[in-house]
Specification:
Catalyzes the formation of 2'-nucleotide products from 2',3'-cyclic substrates. May participate in RNA metabolism in the myelinating cell, CNP is the third most abundant protein in central nervous system myelin. This protein is of the alpha/beta class and about 475 residues long. The chain has helices spanning about 1-15, 20-25, 25-35, 50-55, 70-80, 105-120, 135-145, 165-170, 175-185, 200-220, 225, 245, 270, 275-280, 305-310, 315-320, 345-360, 410-440, 445; strands at about 60-65, 85-90, 125-130, 150-155, 195-200, 255-260, 285-295, 300-305, 335-340, 365-370, 375-380, 385-400, 460. The strands form two sheets. Strands 5, 6, 7, 8, 9, 10, 11, 12 and 13 form a nine-stranded mixed β-sheet that branches. A four-stranded parallel β-sheet has the order 2-3-1-4, sandwiched between helices.
Length: about 475
């Protein structure tokens, strides 16, 4: 099997790799490919179950590791698996790996190749380099963020990946052990994402956006919604409110599991070390959207997690958001579809928990109506929830989001203070909402809309 893999990689290397074949496949690399121990290519993104999702995605694989550790072999194995939709960009034979205060000028040419691939929409882009300097990673993170590519940090699993004595023999650069040890030190520092989550494939993002826009358009045209335009304050004019314009969306659609803030949030580093996170990192998942909802602050999709997916859901996530409530594990799972001006995406999860809290208390809404997509409920104060008759399944990939960390210490402190203020505001909003519901109980019968005959439930659409 190892020999056939080498032949497969050799067959496509001229097409995929932007440099001379003999240089890329040195005798040392061919020997290394044949020496691979069992399990050295055990990556979820190489499983057939994940291939389809990645072909529909936009992903940059940043391969990190010491010279001779098996990076190039792994890179071309990925290229062989994703032959028609993959591009390998390698620093081999171009940039000598070393610990230095400044990045070599040669990286500019490599970055231009990466940008070109992103502009062309290449599904799988592989960066084959040591990638041991933080400045280098930040540059690649910037490019990925600009073109909305998901980033995976990948290291070889070869038994000798950290054995400097062995690597000295295998590396084409013939680096002495002293230099290899210096490089190893910079690679041992952990790189934490801004957050972990399930990221929708490019195709699933398009379909989810279409479903969301249909919901907003349908809701905006209902007489029942028009009666409550004032819930949106100054944003609603005399002629109403355009919900599609009111909510702004940025970035890749995703369902966050754990906010990490680059490893600084309490429990973030422990979450990274969870067996489930290590096992499922870069794995493909299908998430089920059970409904859509809006508030004057956010628009989102409600996600129902399976037992397997709940393994990746942090313990106490709901309790952390609402300390005084006992809400179901995983009930905060959502996809942010858009936010009102100056509202952070994290607000979407808090808004969803407001619905969950009301449902737990037995409230079914102040009014309800059956529409084509499902059963629509109004809970007051601009809170609308659509329970879908036909659940929507979206393809996703589990990983981390790694934007460049641009905040300084002062900005970070201000952000933390803002988060605390936001929490206090949310607690106050909960109390105000409760008082408002009590006042509206007497008016419930006047606001109810007789439901029409609903459609059968239990169907599912995969996108």
């Amino acid at each position: 099997m190892l020999i056939s893999c080498t032949k497969l990689v050799s067959r496509f290397v001229q097409k995929i790799c932007p440099f001379n074949r003999r240089q890329f496949f040195s005798n040392k690399m061919q020997e290394q490919a044949l020496e691979r121990a069992e399990g050295s290519l055990a990556f979820p993104f190489l499983d057939e179950a994940s291939v389809e999702a990645y072909r529909e995605s936009r992903t940059i694989f940043i391969i990190r590791g010491l010279p001779g550790s098996g990076k190039s072999t792994l890179a071309c194995t990925i290229a062989g698996k994703y032959e028609a939709v993959c591009k390998v960009i390698s620093a081999d034979q171009k940039i000598r790996p070393e610990v230095s205060p400044a990045l070599p000028e040669e990286y500019k040419a490599l970055d231009e190749e990466v940008v070109h691939c992103c502009k062309e929409g290449v599904a799988v882009v592989v960066i084959d380099d040591t990638n041991h300097q933080w400045e280098r990673l930040e540059k690649l993170f910037d490019i990925a963020s600009e073109y909305q590519y998901l980033v995976h940090l990948v290291e070889p699993k070869t038994p000798w990946k950290n054995d400097c004595a062995e690597l000295e023999k295998k590396s084409q650069w013939k680096l002495p052990q002293s230099e290899l040890n210096n490089l190893r030190g910079s690679l041992e520092e952990a790189v934490y994402p801004l957050f972990y989550g399930w990221f929708l494939t490019h195709k699933s993002q398009s379909h989810t956006n279409e479903k969301g826009k249909k919901f907003l358009k349908t809701l905006g045209e209902l007489d029942e919604f028009k009666e409550h335009w004032d819930d949106f304050g100054e944003a609603a004019s005399e002629t109403g409110i355009n919900l599609e314009e009111y909510f702004e969306r940025k970035g890749i659609l995703h369902c966050t599991t754990k906010y990490s803030d680059y490893g600084k949030v309490k429990g973030a580093q422990e979450y990274t070390e969870l067996e489930a996170v290590k096992k499922f990192y870069s794995s493909a998942f299908c998430l089920q959207i059970s409904g859509f909802f809006i508030t004057p602050r956010t628009a989102g999709a409600r996600v129902r997690l399976t037992d397997k997916q709940l393994e990746l859901w942090p313990a106490g996530s709901e309790k952390e958001a609402m300390p005084s409530e006992e809400l179901p594990h995983g009930s905060r799972a959502h996809i942010t579809l858009g936010c009102a001006k100056d509202v952070e995406p994290k607000q979407t999860g808090l808004d969803l928990l407001e619905f969950v809290k009301l449902e737990k208390e037995g409230q079914q809404g102040l009014a309800e109506k059956d529409i084509d997509q499902g059963k629509l409920r109004y809970f007051g104060k601009g809170m609308w929830m659509l329970e879908l008759y036909e659940k929507v399944t979206v393809k996703t990939v589990f990983g981390g989001f790694y934007p460049k960390h641009k905040e300084g210490k002062e900005e970070s402190k201000e952000k933390e203070e803002a988060v605390e203020e936001n929490k206090e505001g949310e607690e106050k909003a909960v109390e105000e909402n409760k008082e408002g519901e009590e006042k509206k109980d007497s008016k419930t019968s006047q606001q109810e809309v007789k439901p029409t005959e609903g459609k059968k439930k239990g169907k599912c659409t995969i996108i």
